Fold this protein.
Amino acid sequence: MISGIAQAINRAKHQHPAMSNFFSSSSSSGPRSSSAFGNVGDGFEFKRTAALDQRRTISERIRTKYPDRVPMIIERVPGAASLNTPKGEKSKFLVSAESPVAHVLVELRKQLRLKPEQSLFLFVGNGVLPPTAALVSHIYERFKDEDGFLYLAYASENTFGAPLLFVEQEE
């Protein structure tokens, strides 16, 4: 099953060049300490607009004030606009460390106002789909960035196909 998911991610990277650019090609295993997406750099708008020291100060202040919560930056995968993925109204989230990833997906679906036929995919690390039953704290410990934030990217896909259009034929 894992290899099937990896193959699907690789197909997505090849079909959608923006995803390939977003996720680094490094294939390190184990915890990542430098960047949640390997060497993304410009992948997240939040990273481009705030210096590392500023982001680190913000996350430390948040973690001190709310030790039972995880600071997250959740942004749309670049190029996902062409995939009919709406852009969220906000990108900064503070989530209970004991919440499952499924809770994050539910809240994000509400914010994005996705149609029922659209599925939502969260990516962390080097294009990894985190298990929906995993606790946010476990994902944070494994994939947190050097600035103290957990970076996630999302994309949606029509899972049940496009709506049918009926065309009347002239007789």
In short: Residues 119 and 156 are 5 Å apart (CA to CA). The helical segments are 2-15, 17-22, 45-49, 52-65, 101-112, 136-143. Residues 15-42 have pLDDT under 50 and may be disordered.
